[in-house]
Amino acid sequence: APDIPVIEQAYSKLSSSITVEWRAVPGATNYMLTAQDGDSFVDTIVKNSPGTVTGLKPATLYRITIRSINSGGKSQPSPFRKVKTVLAAPILSVHSPSCDSIAVSWKAVHMAAGFSVSLMRSDGLGRMLKENTTNTSLIFTNLDPGTLYTIKAYAWNANGMPGDDFTYNQRTSPNAPVDVKVAFSGGALRAVVSWMPAEGALTYSVTVSSGLLKLRCNTSSASCIVPSLQCSSEYYVSVTAYNDAGSSKPTDAVSLKTIPCAPVNISIEEDEPGHLLVSWSSISFGHYYVVFVKSDDGVEVHCNTSYTQCHFQSDCGFTYFISVFAYNKAGQSPLGDIFNYTTAPCCPSDFRAVFMSSDTVRVTWAPVRGADLYETRAAGGSGVVLLCKDTATACTLSALQCNTPYNITVYSVSEARGSNTSCAPQYVATAPCSPEIKNISKEGLSVISVLWQSNNEEATYVITARGEAGLWHCISTGNSCTLMDLPCGSAFSVSAVARSPAGQSLPSYSVPLETAPCCPNDLILTQVTQSVTNISWSVGMGAQTYVTTLESPKGQAQCHTIQNFCLLGCITCGTNYTVSLRAISETGLTSSCTYQGYSSSACCPSGVKLYRLSNNGIRVFWRASDETINYNADLHGSKGNFSCTPSSGLSHCDITEIPCGDVYTVVVAPVTDKRPKLTFCPKKIYSVTCSGSSVGMVIYRGKSNAKYI
């Protein structure tokens, strides 16, 4: 075994170890250091000097020995040395109670008489602060905020021997941020809070509070966005800086008033046509309001007010889109509900009423903006209301009462707003009622008086007689008028219409009218025989039968016929007659017609005889009915015709030369200046014989059988 080493020096620099120094022992390869505390041993193998025994108790007196070791074994322990371990280091508890202070505390250290604590910025700037104390805590003040400090502390014993030291790095808490600013970004309900960075601050916390509501934003930068703010609210914003030492004091609260909420309880009404009133409830933090009104044709107007209502001009038939915004210094409120308001459709224009008949009017108008359909009402004096609804711009109102004023109103109707009840009515009067003809009477030849019932004082009445002969009219504002110069023998249909500024009535019911038949224009009397006269006439328009009459003081001759001629017998010759004719229609209407008087021819003579004269002559003799009448005698034979006319007042005449041996027809007839020779006087036949070359006997043979018509 090697020799026993000799301890030259033993000491303790750490509370858990003792360091031993010795001279090297030849042949020794290792050394074993032993620290004994009562029955407790701690061994440590080392290679050479110095060597340290660890794992010891602080502030404990140990007996230190050393043995040398080689392959032959261990030497005997060296003489011991008594060495006491130094004090243990105080275990520090450090925090920064404020931004400019650090508080240090520790537990009591066994055998410690006092403590020494030093503090210095970790970056080496500034001076070191050192404090000796017998207490177990102390506070360093007036430090730099947010700065990292290195703290070293150790305890010493009664001999002033320092023990182990304890080093701790501690940062002061940061100072409160400064220059805090609040702005809105990316939306009126998102706030951007910014500040100047605080020294030593690692993170920041922004607190936005309003009543019981608190919003937080944590960040490591010098700004923070706080979303989800509520409109019409006032928030108080503070910023706290943080680091590993703690937090700063919150900054003084900065007031933040958000944008106002969108106005509510918006109402829109037309207080009068053409004026829109928009009103709403007052909004907290709303300093003023702007109302935007945009019509469906793209025109937009706005109103800026500090009140809660606005007036706008409006046009009929438009849809307006209305939005209300509130404003304050923070900006514009969010978009609320967009209201649309459709004004009543425009009232129809270019109103026209045309009567199709007396009880039917067709109403037309120009189409108007905003109208989906039209409702037409006609209110009459009796309260009767006629109604029609249609999408067309025309309406036919029928079954109207004649001679009645109506207020016709065309209302435009829309699905959104309903009916525009402000449309003005149009006054329309219907045409007069149809007149009723009460009586038709004849006032004279071709003059007819018509009487009707008048029902309209403003009306003019037109009476029309219509027939094949044409049209005849008379006009009156009263209740009667006279139709003049109606042609005879004609059938008419008489009707009446009433005319007024409102129009023309329907025709009245027609009343038949027949004028008396026309008198024949031409009437010819021809005496057929001495007692028979033939009367012929032209056709009288409208006449079916005729009654002709020849009348004289001596008597009357009459005939009734459907022909246009008639034979009248019992005519007295040489008599003046009045001639009349009555034309009678199918319905019994009669026209009395008078004509120029008629004189029958003079009476034929009687007692006509032939007497032979000497020298081949013949005398014709007769008895005259009137000595004032002149006669003419005609003899007709195969050998010649002979005639003679006596001197006035004589009743015979002579024919001086007449052939004998012939049969003669002898006629003696009155002579008239204007009438043709009469052919109806009796004809007698005589034979004139010859006596030699002269006239012999005259023999009566009888009357002629010839017919005279």
Characterise the protein shown here.
By secondary structure, the chain is an all-beta fold. The protein has 8 domains: 7-84, Immunoglobulin-like (Sandwich), CATH 2.60.40; 92-171, Immunoglobulin-like; 178-257, Immunoglobulin-like, CATH 2.60.40.10; 264-343, Immunoglobulin-like; 352-429, Immunoglobulin-like (Sandwich), CATH 2.60.40.10; 436-514, Immunoglobulin-like, CATH 2.60.40; 523-600, Immunoglobulin-like; 606-699, Immunoglobulin-like (Sandwich), CATH 2.60.40.10. It contains no helices and 62 strands. Strands 3, 4, 6, 7 and 8 form a 5-stranded antiparallel beta sheet that branches. Strands 18, 19, 21, 22 and 23 form a 5-stranded antiparallel beta sheet that branches. Strand 55 and strand 56 form a beta hairpin. The radius of gyration is 80 Å and the shape is rod-shaped. The mean pLDDT is 89. It comes from Dicrurus megarhynchus. It holds the Pfam family fn3. Residues 1-88, 89-175, 176-261, 262-346, 431-518 form the Fibronectin type-III domain.
